[in-house]
Amino acid sequence: MKTVIIFMLILFAGITLQAQIKVDVENKVERKVNQRANSRTDQAIDKGLDKLEEGIGKLFKKKKKKNKNGNQQAEEQIQQNNTIEHPSNLVKEEQAKLAQPEVKWTKFDFVPGDEVIFEDGPSADEENGEFPSRWDLHKGSVEIGELNGEPVIMFLADGSYIVPYLKNPKEDYLPEVFTIEMDVWFGKSSTTANRFFIYLGDQKNNNQSDATHTNLTIMPHSLEFLDSEKDYPGTENIGWTAERKDVWHHISIAYTRGKFKAYMGDTRLINIPHLEVNPSGITIEAGKADMYLKNFRIAKGGVKYYDRVLSDGKIIVNGIRFDVNKATIKPESNGAINKIFSLMQKQPELNFSVEGHTDSDGDEAKNMDLSKARGKAVMERLISLGIAANRLKSTGWGESKPLADNGTAEGKANNRRVEFVKF
User: Fold this and answer.
1) Distance (Å, whole) CA 76 – CA 67
2) Is the pLDDT reported for residue 388 higher than 50?
3) How many C-beta atoms lie closer than 10 Å to residue 143's C-beta?
4) pLDDT of residue 107
5) Residue 41: what pLDDT?
6) 108 falls in which pLDDT band (50, 70, 90)?
7) % of the chain exceeding 90 in pLDDT
8) Could you tell me whether strands 392-396 and 352-357 are parallel, antiparallel, or unpaired per DSSP bridges?
9) Residue 182 backbone zone (phi > 0: left; psi -120 to 50: alpha; other: beta)
């Protein structure tokens, strides 16, 4: 019996060992197959990469070849491939982009009129809490206030109206060609009353029931005039109930013998070819309380820049604006600068001395330095746009060459100018 048991154990052990040997052999075979397969795959990939690297190397070394007709083949595609593929070219391209100045409002085509006929900052001399001295009140409540450290006109009641205070307010003081500029402030609000209205018509009777006027409606995101309304780009899907931020908007209006254009910031939103109403005066209404206005200006006339060069040998521009007591060019100046740039592109024989001028406020020596810095800033802007440096030079004359009386706001505005003198 014991013999039988021992025999059975030996037989079982043999079978088990045989199974283990079979499993080990199968595992080893499988591992070996995988190793050899991976090795062959690696070899195939290496060969493929070698060929790819060789091809790219030939691409960079490729030179002009002649086709069957004997003409040289263009290398434009090779250069494009090099730019796309070669890292050093990408770095150079990014460095070139960074070297270029950031110029905003490059497509802004609004150019202010030649002569300022009404100007109100308001002045820093205005007393806080008093009614703005350069305006008349038609309705409501308006006072001088301060916002972020600078004086502003504050509308304190819903539906407040103001009109410019002029010597002959009942006369038609708006010429056939004029421009209007202003900065308006909108607080964060979801109400549709958060808007300004600029009425054009009889100055003393510009209420909303008067059929002889028309008005430009200024909203935080759009302009509306007659049957035309357009949103500022990027705000098309923002409704009145959307949350908004406090913001200043620069508004520009250009009227030329019946043609009416209106801009918000750097974009023209309204373009009316034939306006039936003859604008004679301006009234400004704020739709709600706590709305603010600053940098209001009316200017008249306009002669094409090239005609001015032919007749006067220079171009006088008061539409180039700077930060107070600085040579930093304001964005709304680019309309005038772009016109000069375009003129110099079309007339390559024109060379200009860019000359800054100031009003008489402040220290005379500082005004001289400031005017030179401003002339240089405008010159450098034109060079950055593409005008050759040898076609430009700059200087400044401070307050030494006034065009108008420095005793009035309008006179000061006309004296703060940049002249482009042909040389």
Assistant:
1) 16
2) yes
3) 17
4) 74
5) 47
6) confident
7) 54
8) parallel
9) beta
pLDDT for residue 310: 87
Q: For residue 18, report the phi and psi dihedrals to the nearest 5 degrees.
A: -65, -40
State the pLDDT confidence band at 422, using cuts at 50, 70 and 90.
very high
For the chain, the distance separating the N- and C-terminal CA atoms, rounded to the nearest angstrom, is 130
Contacts of 135 (CB under 8 A, 6+ apart): 120, 142, 153, 162, 163, 164, 165
CA distance 194 to 221: 11
CA distances from residue 323 to 306, 330, 341 in whole angstroms, order as listed: 28, 7, 22
Q: What average pLDDT score do residues 129-142 get? A: 95
**pLDDT value at residue 48:** 52
Q: How far apart are CA 346 and CA 2, in angstroms?
A: 119
Sign (positive or negative) of CA dihedral 360, 364, 367, 371? positive
H/E run at residue 77: helix 76-85
**Structure confidence at residue 33 (pLDDT):** 44
pLDDT tens digits along 313-364: 999 999 999 999 999 999 999 999 999 999 999 999 999 999 999 999 999 9
Other beta carbons less than 10 A from residue 231's beta carbon? 16
Q: Check residue 187 and give its pLDDT.
A: 80
Find all residues with CB under 8 Å of 153, minimum gap 6, and list them.
Answer: 120, 122, 132, 135, 142, 143, 144, 145, 162, 292, 293, 294, 296
Structural domains of the chain, with CATH: 107-302 (2.60.120.560), 303-423 (3.30.1330.60)
Q: Which candidate, 357, 380, 383, 382, places its Cα nearest to that of 370?
A: 357
Q: Distances from the Cα of 367 to the Cαs of 7, 399, 406, 410, in angstroms?
A: 120, 7, 14, 19
Confidence of residue 252 (pLDDT cuts 50, 70, 90): very high
The answer to whether 250 touches 269, Cβ cutoff 8 Å, is no
Q: Which segments of 287-403 are extended strands (E)?
A: 291-300, 314-317, 352-357, 392-396
Which residues, at least 6 apart from 227, have a Cβ–Cβ distance to it below 8 Å?
A: none
Backbone phi and psi for residue 115, each to the nearest 5 degrees, phi listed first: -120, 125
197, β-bridge pairs: 217, 285
Give dist(CA 216, CA 234) in Å, integer: 21
Provide the edge-to-edge strand list for the sheet that holds 417-422.
314-317, 417-422, 352-357, 392-396
Taking the C-alpha atoms of residue 335 and residue 109, their distance in angstroms, rounded to an integer, is 5
